[in-house]
Amino acid sequence: xxxxxxxxxxxxxxxxxxxxxxxxxxKIKLIEDHIESPxxxxxxxxxxxxxxxxxxxxTHFDLDVANxxxxxxxxxxxxxxxxxxxxxxxxxxxxxxxxxxxYGLDLWHKKADxxxxxxxxFHMTLDDWNTSIRAEIPAMLAQGVSTFKMYLTYPAxxxxxxxxxxxxxxxxxxxxxxxxxxxxxxxxxxLIAEKKAAGELSPASHPLCRPDLTEAEAVGRLLKIAALADxxxxxxxxxxxxxxxxxxAARALGQKVYVETCPQYLLLDDSCYSLxxxxxxxxxxAPPLRKPxxxxxxxxxxxxxxxxxxxxxxxxxxxxxxxxGRGDFTKIPGGVPxxxxxxxxxxxxxxxxxxxxxxxxxxxxxxxxxxxxxLWGRKGxxxxxxxxxxxxxxxxxxxxxxxxxxxxxxxxxPYEGFQISGSIRRVYLRGRLSVEEGKVxxxxxxxxxxxxxxxxF
Length: 457
Ligand code: DUC
Ligand code: ZN
Fold this sequence. Notes:
Blueprint lengths: L1 E10 L4 E9 L2 E6 L8 E4 L4 E4 L1 E6 L4 E2 L2 E2 L4 H10 L2 E8 L7 H12 L6 E7 L5 H12 L4 E5 L9 H14 L2 E5 L3 H13 L7 H5 L2 H18 L3 E3 L5 H12 L4 E5 L1 H5 L24 H12 L5 E2 L8 H4 L19 H11 L5 H15 L17 E11 L18 E11 L2 E5 L2 E2 L17
Parallel strand pairs: 1-4, 1-5, 6-9, 9-10, 10-11, 11-12, 12-13, 13-14, 14-15
Antiparallel strand pairs: 1-2, 2-3, 5-16, 7-8, 16-17, 17-18, 18-19
Helix pairs in contact: 4-7, 7-8
The structure holds dihydropyrimidine-2,4(1H,3H)-dione and zinc ion.
């Protein structure tokens, strides 16, 4: 099967050009100013932008958390991802404490295999650290799991500073990489106890119990632990000026730190938690939404290269699930949906708004994720020999986000009413037309991606 994308603006992280792209079966075969291929199906791309398929390296599908399970599983989450131009997700396999990594990996394969619309891989969560977990690391790498996650908060997940240090040192030996959730658990617990004692139990208390300095403290501590372990590290869902200051200081000392942020921290602020009628619950996530000044700084950090990736932390709950925390904000399941709207939001409020270039968008959503997460050479760019994962974007389209129009399994959307500049006309997954004008054509075409070691840059 051959498809010829004629006269497209081909967008890559390093540069854009106008030309033709010939796809043969699942791969990009040729990119030239003009290609003749009589047996190819021609797609006229005049006036359209051709982006590399986006990679979302931070999703939580089918995750049991806070006495419930996320609303999106791999079927609905994968479908939503693809519809939004994300052709690859990397989800977090998550064994419980006491279970082996292999058990967690097998479980995540059962959740995802044969029922995911986009391609997918898994990070492994290290929520235990002992000799048998340590001994499992090579088997994880052999099965294509080359990146790991650790938590400095959440009792069910955190492993302590000493274990984080040992794990980072161990992963470094193999060339593997860890992303770390940075918040100070002890201070958050103390602040929650105060709010409970004062009877202040509405969603408005949520950001007050997780202030920016609890994140910055944990980022600073992690970076010192990583320096001691002489290991590179990723700070996931980074939200604020204070955390970026810690990162800047570590980099000034020569440390390798990669930074991820998410659309919710760029586009929403903590005033959402004070909305009436328990609507603040919709925005409960950890770390919480911050101040407009933090948003402005994050945009600046995207543009100047301080932040390398934008992923979603997609962790969706329905309104009735969020109701579990009415009367006690600590029982609101934490997380927001995002996988379906990331590309168009980042195009609209980044590229169209003049905050970042379209090449930077391709870098943040595709190329850097491919490099960091062991997919470069296959994913992340429109380049000969790469998978033909493509987004055909019409920059002249316009629409408004409404939850009712989305396929993610959630009955609200944090970006309800946001005006989008442009629209996704089509998405191709490994050369197959998979989304057309918002319709997902294939539900289970995704393949498991056995990932290589991170390509550090
Ligand atoms: N934060 C959330 O809000 N949800 C899922 C996990 C996380 O770190
Ligand atoms: Zn997460």
